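Blinded run. Sample ID left blank on purpose so nobody reads anything into the name before looking at the predicted structure. Input follows.
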Amino acid sequence: MPKLTVEGFGTFEVPASKRLVLAVEQDAHVDILHACGGFARCTTCRVEFVDGEPARMTEAEKERLAARGLSGLRLSCQILCDHDMTVRAVSRLEGSGRPDPGPAPQETITPPPAWV
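Blinded prediction complete.
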């Protein structure tokens, strides 16, 4: 099983191919935002990779990051935990002023991934 380290929270074994947004929230118990429900629309599930950044990304992630002018960040809703990785949770419920993190993301990447 891959190991996910979330800075400030620890290291956790997560099921292979689990969506990173779900692993951060469910396994590491971090209050990461996912306002759009994990559909690569809102960019609130942002993480910064410290180690183990995946080489590929979905077309949806690439387009959304470019549209928002974001660099050095990734969308956790568009990443699978298929190897060991270390991340920093950038967008958290704490201090956001939002009432909740957003709708629960599905278990599979949405929209269906086209990898680039």
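Unblinding after everyone has recorded impressions. The CA atoms of residues 65 and 71 lie 7 Å apart.
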